[in-house]
Amino acid sequence: MSSKTSELKSRRFGTFGGVFTPNVLTILGVILFLRAGWVVGNTGLLGALLIIVISNFISLSTGLSLSAIATNMDVKAGGNYYMISRTLGLEVGGSIGIPLYFSQALSVAFYVIGFTEGLRWVFPQLNPILTASITCTILLFISFIGADLALKVQYFILAVLCLSLVSFFAGWTGSQHTIVFWNQSKVGFWPVFAVFFPAVTGIEVGVSMSGDLKDPQYSISRGTLMAIGVTFLVYVAQAVWLSLNASGAELSRNLMVMKTVARWPRLINAGLWAATISSALGCIVAAPRTLQALALDKILPGFIAKGSKRTNEPRIAIIITFIIAEACILLGGLDTVAPVITMFFLNTYGVINLLAVLENLIGNPSYRPQVKVPWLISLAGAVGCYAAMFLIHAPATIVAIITTLCLYVYLGRKDIQSTWGDIKSGIWFSLARFALLKLEDSELYPQNWRPNILVFSGNHKTGRHLIFFAHWLGKKKGIVSLYQMIFGNNDFILRHSATATKILNNFISTNNLPALGHVCIAEDFRSGIKQVCQTSGMGRMQSNLVLLGWCKKSSREIEFARLIRDLHYLQKSVLILNIPTENAFGNYKRIDVWWGGMQNNGNLMILIAYLICQNSEWRECEINLNMIIAKEQGRAAATTNLKKILQDARIEANVNVFVQDSPKVKVPYLIRKHSQDADLVILGMRLPEEGQEEAFIERMILFLAGLPTALLIKSVENIELTT
Fold this sequence. Notes:
Layout (H helix, E strand, L loop, with lengths): L2 H8 L4 H13 L2 H5 L1 H35 L9 H9 L1 H33 L5 H18 L1 H24 L18 H8 L7 H4 L8 H30 L2 H6 L3 H5 L4 H31 L18 H17 L6 H25 L12 H40 L9 H17 L11 E5 L7 H11 L4 E9 L3 H5 L1 H14 L5 E7 L2 H11 L9 E5 L7 H13 L3 E6 L11 E6 L6 H12 L8 E8 L5 H15 L4 E6 L7 H9 L4 E5 L8 H12 L5 E5 L9
Parallel strand pairs: 1-2, 1-4, 2-3, 4-5, 6-7, 6-9, 7-8, 9-10
Antiparallel strand pairs: 5-10
Helix pairs in contact: 2-8, 2-11, 2-14, 4-9, 4-11, 4-16, 4-17, 5-6, 5-16, 6-7, 6-14, 6-15, 6-16, 6-17, 7-8, 7-14, 7-15, 8-14, 9-17, 14-15, 16-17, 19-24, 22-23, 23-27
């Protein structure tokens, strides 16, 4: 059977049975029967109503956010995990989904133990561990047979719960007492809120049935919101009825005050049993579906995802969930992890709210939910969830957050591949757009200069040294754009440009380079580079450096010199790297900068040497700032001047001033003599004048002859080394 056919057969429940009923049965749980009276007794009627309103506002905003996300996609198995992973990616989805599953699995044990304790109030002779284990095993068989049976059992439980509520509201104690509207007890308002709030977090069960719903988009939104509305009315009516029928003192001390008020007290016991067993049944049905979805996405071993042939029931996941729950029942000690479980549920709801906020603010055209929710409401829900987490149990909140972060880092390193898109690119696009527009309105000052480099490496395989050199300059400080030029203009070249782009981007990814890859088709290298320099960048994010390799073909030398002049007129500083040997950068120990004092090159030369030394490969490197003067008398002044420049720039370097003893000793010879052992030599160059291109090439060849790897610089900017 194909996975699509299996999926269609598994979609068999509607809104009432698949979402509304399990949600209502989980929300109207133990707190309704054992803690609601205590809440009214410790805060008064108005205080209790305020707690109910605040709690349900957080629950409602979460439900609205959930509805918005659900009605914007085809929700499949996995509930909240599925929606988070398809929106924020597998790393975030898995870091939320794994703790969520364990919370659901452990909740089975909690509710079973609660059900057992409720039974023992009437039948104290029962063995607690044996009773809990038998109950858990019965739930296993119900869920193993299928969700159909589980939901049918929940209809019976819902009927029992409704009868218990009828019994409660039909009762009347006839007591005469003053209603306490506001009570400032020793417990305090927020601690009481922390006790009540978990009651409204039961919307997870219905969402987890997403893979079994006929129409998940409709059922999740309608069923969740209906459940929140109905249970809100029940809790409000209960608070009012309790305040009318019992004094504040009795409400505070009598946990079974509902039984005192009820017309048929035994139905309250039945309602308590129904509340706990329905919650346990809901969790043992929901948890395996979350586990199955995690396995389907390869976050967990794939065999866990195997389902039954007819309805794709996650039977292996059901067995695993039963083992976890039964182990907790046998080992006990659940009180320690109980707060953490609640935190994982709330963390999931907080992330759902944040998803709705992000989707609204990013404004992707693909975000077209049928239920539209203002982002401020979703933001209020997120703030409420995380505030409630800290109010309920701050240490457990910290544990939950750390666990989620650790899982995120682990899954990120696993590099799990997904076959769908997420909104992360939309987030970065929105941030980039915001930053570009803000940058356009701001002044750019020389001290804020950063390298924005265009690298023309030819074929990236042969231009590896050029690419890595650009990476050293731009690492954590600037932007590097790699351009591969393809010359010609025919259909064959145009058809294969996409393939060339893919190969270039694969090279960038394989070498973990923080760079942008581009392929440019042009008639010839000079016009192509000029075209790129004029069109690259956006707004103030224009490139300011062009990095080229020294021209190796004599037939192109004249055009190469003209290109340097063209780039200067286009306001681009030009860097030309000449690598004469295979051992390109030697031992990465020494950089010689030859200060000429003219052409505005000096500051950029020193700054580039500094940027290179910030990389791990060059961490033991020293910089030599060298200068050649004509007469010995000027050595002291030149040395002082260079040291002052370095001091003001806060750059450490050695200063060397050499004297040209005779006019016959050419400058290129002196540079070669003193820098032949350097690992990189940085030289300034003049602009090639019109008609003097050949003389420029000859001069540069003379300077480069006999030198190790050398960088020629022609700066167009007056860069500030001081702030």
